[in-house]
Amino acid sequence: MPSPDLESTYGALLIGVFISIFFQGILSVQAHLYYETFPGDSLKLKALVAVVWTLDLAHLVLISQAVYHYLVLSWGNDAALLETSIPLDLHLIPLTLSIVACQAYFLDRVWRFSKNAILTGILAVACLTSGILTIVMTGQTVQSNTIGKDTGEIIAVFSLGAAADLSIAGILCWYLQREMTVFDRINSLLSRIIQFTLATGLATSLLALGCLVAYVVSPKSLIFVASDALFLGSDVH
Questions:
Q1: Distance of alpha carbon 161 from alpha carbon 128, whole angstroms
Q2: Which residues, 6+ apart, have CB-to-CB distance to 66 below 8 Å?
Q3: What is the pLDDT of residues 75-120, one digit of tens each?
Q4: 76's torsion region: left (phi>0), alpha (psi -120 to 50) or beta?
Q5: Per residue in 168-215, pLDDT tens?
Q6: Model pTM score
Q7: Nearest to residue 136, comparing CAs of 151, 150, 158?
Q8: Are residues 74 and 182 in the same domain?
């Protein structure tokens, strides 16, 4: 039985764990600063921050368990390295829920600015479709019990994710631009918000495209899975 290429599979996954630990630390600091700085925010917004932090932690725990399973418990067992594991499969669930939660927050802003039900609905359908496809992909991976299964859902997930994030960022920037006034102080604040919104949407879109390219170029590796850590970090920060 051929041995898997450890560098492009579990080596990449290990790097993804390191990246996730880094972003979990940043998110923890940001969450603490948020609760300290904005104690008067609504309970719903505070709950959203707590949910995203918890989902990010769950994602980190699952991929850490997966790495431990393959690199410690299955050390020297080539057959085990060719099969998937439950933690590796399930890491997509908190990843997806966290991304959808963040997208829902920005979709709420799109609705508040536009009051356009059709526009908001189209973007919501794109985000939900991407999330549902990820859940379906998780089920397929569990059933196949193999690493690197070639599925069209992966291409659809990253493509829809990139398109949705970029569209949301572009629409928010357009509506913010309309709020410009003759007051320099307000315009300066709006310009900073626009730059932040555009940078966030562009970062997540580029990373989603990066995950897609990594999968298309090397579908049998786990490089695109390691890239999920960057994708999640850019979306929640």
A1: 10
A2: 13, 85, 87, 88, 91
A3: 878 777 777 888 888 888 898 898 888 888 889 888 888 889 999 9
A4: left
A5: 888 887 877 776 665 566 666 666 666 666 666 666 666 777 776 777
A6: 0.81
A7: 151
A8: no
CA-to-CA dists, residue 93 to 11, 40, 67, angstroms: 22, 31, 17
The residue assigned the tokens 């399930």 is 90
Alpha carbon 47 to chain centroid distance? 19
Residue 28 in any domain: the answer is: yes
**185 exposed, middle or buried (CB, 10 Å; 0-12, 13-18, 19+)?**
exposed
Within the chain, residue ranges assigned H as helices are 10-37, 43-68, 78-81, 86-90, 92-114, 117-144, 152-178, 184-217, 223-236
- Flag whether 157 is in a domain: yes
Retrieve residue 164's tokens. 């949705």
Residue closest to 70 by CA, chosen among 145, 6, 8: 6
Task: Look up residue 142 and give its two tokens.
Answer: 């569990």
Q: What's the CA gap between 114 and 210, in Å, rounded?
A: 31
The domain containing residue 78 runs over which residues? Answer: 1-90
Alpha-carbon distance of 52 to 91, in angstroms, equals 14
Separation of first and last alpha carbons in the chain: 43
Do 215 and 100 share a structural domain? yes
